[in-house]
Write a structure and sequence with these properties.
Layout lengths: L5 E3 L2 E5 L4 H7 L5 E4 L2 E5 L4 H20 L3 E5 L3 E3 L11 E5 L5 E2 L3 E3 L4 E6 L4 H15 L3 E6 L4 E7 L5 E4 L6 E2 L9 E2 H5 L6 H13 L1
Parallel strand pairs: 6-9, 10-11
Antiparallel strand pairs: 1-2, 2-4, 3-4, 5-7, 7-10, 8-9, 11-12, 12-13, 14-15
Helix pairs in contact: 2-5
Length: about 210
Amino acid sequence: MVADNQLHTGGEVIATGVSFEEYLEKFAADFCELEYGNVVKMSPVHERHDKLNRYLAMLFEAYFALKPIGQIRQEPFVMKSRVDLPAREPDIQIILNDNPGQLHSTYMQGPADICIEIVSPGSVEHDRGKKFVEYQKGGVREYWIFDSIAIECLFYRLSEDGIYRRQYPDQDGNYRTDLLPGLVINVHTILQSNLPDLFEIGESVKAMLAE
């Protein structure tokens, strides 16, 4: 059933009463998410969001090219972390080779190891609220939020009791995780106006892994 321009947090509901299979077939490729039978069209991204998304994708691609322990997927690739939770399209999902879920051609069945959301003006409540709760419940091991509006980077790690605990970069602004050995995420780089280009990224990742 097509909705009558009903507004929804994070976007517009464009259809209701939709199954997961129908969502994958008709809506997922158009940057939509499925919330309990409602298909929600995501808000357009900000220019900064797009640039940061591409930078991060190149960073992870370079890392996995040199250390092939996983792979990435970008929106509109779907993640269905649990049957009872909405189908989401994280800006970036990192899926390690030992992830017990099932990676299909158009969606990840089960939680990704790391989900990354880049906050745009229209996604603040979604990324910091609903998705935080859902990724935690769904078992996503780490959730990173990069917010150029509030000028902050937030890193959360799932504890043994299933609760996200915030993790902090070191005094130099470097964040490291055991999930990605050798990789350094520098928050100052993430938040700067001019991001490194493809060649700079490749050289920096080589240097990280050589240490």
